[in-house]
Specification:
5 helices, mainly alpha, 3 strands, 132 residues, 36% helix
């Protein structure tokens, strides 16, 4: 690895967290890209209180620490700064060893209350565009 890769555009070196994660995401999941359990980004997970026997390591500990209360897969992926698919693999491993439980998001009924309000979505989109 050359020193230039670890320098910013202005020539200043990157230190600690500024340099980013030193381990590639696929090594965290042992090269696996498919979780053993079906997990959606909206799936809620929560720790069971049972210590994991087979899921050891800092990444598993970090994920498990975030599961104290109900939290979504998307939130965990954002907190640990890993791709969603890698997060799903870690969470599926923790589900398999009984350290966490996963609950699929509730299905939305097909009634009129479940229809999306187009005006609301357009207002949100316009607000987001103004911020950029």
């Amino acid at each position: 690895m050359t020193v230039r890769r670890l320098r910013r555009q202005g020539g200043e070196p990157w230190y600690d967290d500024a340099a980013g994660r030193l381990v590639r995401p696929y090594t965290v999941s042992n090269g696996r890209t498919r979780p053993t359990a079906h997990l959606d980004l909206l799936t809620m997970v929560m720790a069971t209180g049972r210590p994991p026997v087979s899921c050891q390591g800092p990444d598993y500990a970090q994920v498990l620490g975030l599961c104290g209360g109900p939290v979504s897969v998307a939130e965990i992926a954002a907190h640990i700064r890993l791709p969603a698919v890698v997060t799903k693999v870690l969470l599926a491993d923790l589900v398999d060893c009984g350290a966490i439980t996963a609950r699929a998001p509730a299905a939305v009924s097909a009634g009129p209350a479940s229809r999306t309000d187009r005006a609301l979505l357009e207002a949100v989109l316009n607000g987001l565009r103004k911020r950029l």
